[in-house]
Design goal:
The complex is a heterodimer of chains A (about 200) and B (about 270).
Chain A (H helix, E strand, L loop, with lengths): L1 H25 L4 E7 L4 E2 L4 E9 L5 E7 L8 E5 L3 E7 L4 E10 L3 E5 L3 E5 L8 E4 L4 E6 L1 H8 L3 H42 L1
Parallel strand pairs in A: 2-11
Antiparallel strand pairs in A: 1-3, 3-7, 4-6, 4-9, 5-7, 8-11, 9-10
Chain B lengths: L1 H43 L13 E9 L9 E3 L4 E9 L5 E12 L2 E18 L4 E8 L8 E13 L4 E14 L7 H34 L4 H5 L18 H12 L2 H9 L1
Parallel strand pairs in B: 2-8
Antiparallel strand pairs in B: 1-3, 3-6, 4-5, 4-7, 7-8
Classes of the chains: A alpha+beta (about 200), B alpha+beta (about 270).
Chain lengths: ~200, ~270
């Protein structure tokens, strides 16, 4: 009788243990990391906005989240604002974090925007960090400033030159009219003065 | 009595056997239909014959980021607008997995083999080491024409293991609603309103003109005496002419000419 009771207890403990271990297995943080380039036009020497969004779709908070993006080499890009390496202490489950960086391409040509690397602790007790890579924006063409200027500049100098070129055609007739008008006005004035004297 | 029972039992058996045979026949029919379907699938040649039937080392997760949904069940995508989702991929195994392609398509909801709109197939060729995770981004625009109807959305991720065995993970394979976006003001309606306003103004101006002319006729009959006095009669009397604006030399010249009018000239000649 006693042995049966103890057996039942042991069995119960065993099952509870397995259940809890299963729970621990499923109770993990899971991060989805998206990397997006928000500019429609990539132009040499002008700002490009890169947005990183981290979604925690797991059931527990992710801790020690480190985002590193080594996809922008120093010889081709300058960081205008923000950090390409950033650390978030804690991202709660069901939450998302957005991080933006402004960079400036120094040259033009095709460029492949690659994935950023993320490391995080998927649970409080996790010993090894979980590695993840973000989504890739893909290949983009950075156009040179001259090409951009050709398409989108307001052409102020061109309009100024055009104005100067049209000046003779407008000013010539105006001067002719002005001379004759002032001549007649002078006569009228003299006559009025004569009348007032009389 | 016993014989009667025996008969009853026998008849029951016979009936049940008949029913069973009929069922068999139905089963056979169904099987035939199924096999036909398979034949269709094979002739179409898409979706391939590879399916992830066996448990694989991959763990996937689908998250719609634009538009945002509370749960997966009621997905509504705006027609003609950008929809975005993220796919989380975890390699749980002990060998590398290579992501190959990610594609999405809209299917006919009654028959998922019937493609309505195919979206980009993204070539990934990304190696995911064991224990590592990757996120894939995907964006698509359901066509404007499909607004207000349900469609089957199918999202497939193809990957291969280290042996080169291809697998397809069906991330989403369910019916979604494509909804129409109610826009506040688009260019077309704006111009319509402007045109309507212009027509109204034109009508008002026309009406005013018409009323004015009708009123004039009724009041006047003819022209009243006061207005007649102010009527323009031209330069009948030379006193009214203002000659101020003419230069003096020109006036002198004119006067001279007047003094020597052609009549006088003629008279002089005759003299």
């Amino acid at each position: 009788m006693y042995s049966l009771k103890s057996f039942v207890i042991v069995a119960l403990i065993c099952t509870s243990l397995t259940v809890s271990s299963q729970n621990a297995d499923s109770q993990q943080a899971r991060l989805l990391v998206s990397k997006q380039v928000l500019n429609k036009l990539l132009v040499q020497d002008s700002d490009i906005l890169v947005k990183y969004t981290i979604y925690n779709v797991g059931s527990v908070p992710a801790t020690n989240v480190v985002l590193q993006d080594s996809g922008f080499p120093d010889e081709a890009f300058a960081t205008v604002k923000g950090n390409l390496n950033i650390r978030f202490n804690r991202i709660p489950s069901g939450a998302n974090v957005t991080h933006a960086v402004v960079i400036k391409p120094l040259t033009y040509g095709r460029f492949n925007f690659t994935a950023a690397v993320v490391q995080y602790k998927s649970s409080e007790g996790a010993e090894e960090p979980q590695f993840a890579i973000s989504s890739e924006p893909g290949e983009g063409y950075i156009i040179s400033y001259a090409e951009y200027d050709k398409k989108f500049s307001p052409h102020l100098l061109d309009w100024f030159v055009f104005a100067i070129m049209t000046l003779p055609a407008v000013v010539g007739p105006f001067m002719l009219w002005w001379v004759s008008k002032s001549k007649y006005e002078l006569i009228l004035k003299q006559k009025r003065e004569k009348v007032s004297k009389d | 009595m016993e014989f009667k029972w025996m008969l009853l039992c026998l008849s029951l058996l016979a009936v049940s056997a008949g029913v069973a045979r009929a069922e068999d026949e139905i089963d056979a029919d169904e099987e035939m239909i199924v096999s036909e379907d398979q034949g269709l699938v094979e002739t179409e040649g898409d979706e391939s014959t590879i399916e992830d039937l066996e448990p694989s080392d991959a763990d996937t997760y689908l998250l719609f980021t634009k538009p945002v949904f509370e749960e997966k069940a009621s997905i509504e995508l705006p027609a003609g607008r950008l929809s975005e989702f993220l796919v989380g991929f975890t390699n749980k195994g002990s060998n590398d997995l290579v992501l190959e392609t990610l594609d999405a398509s809209l299917r006919y909801p009654m028959d998922f083999n019937f493609h309505i709109q195919n979206f980009t197939t993204v070539l990934l060729e990304k190696t995911i080491p064991p224990g590592s995770q990757a996120t894939l981004g995907y964006a698509f625009i359901p066509a404007d024409a499909f607004a207000g109807r349900p469609f089957g959305l199918s999202i497939n991720l193809a990957y291969r293991d280290y042996e080169g065995k291809q697998m397809i993970s069906k991330l989403y394979n369910d019916t979604v609603n494509i909804i129409e976006v109610e826009e506040g003001l688009d260019g077309e309606t704006l111009f319509l309103y402007v045109l309507m306003a212009a027509a109204c103004v034109l009508l008002l101006v026309g009406g005013q003109q018409f009323l004015y002319s009708v009123g004039k006729k009724r009041v006047g009959g003819g022209l009243p005496s006061r207005t007649r006095a102010n009527l323009e009669t031209g330069t009948k009397t030379s006193k009214q002419i203002d000659m101020d604006w003419v230069p003096k030399n020109v006036l002198n010249h004119l006067n001279k000419q007047k003094a020597q009018s052609p009549k006088q000239k003629r008279v002089k000649k005759t003299d």
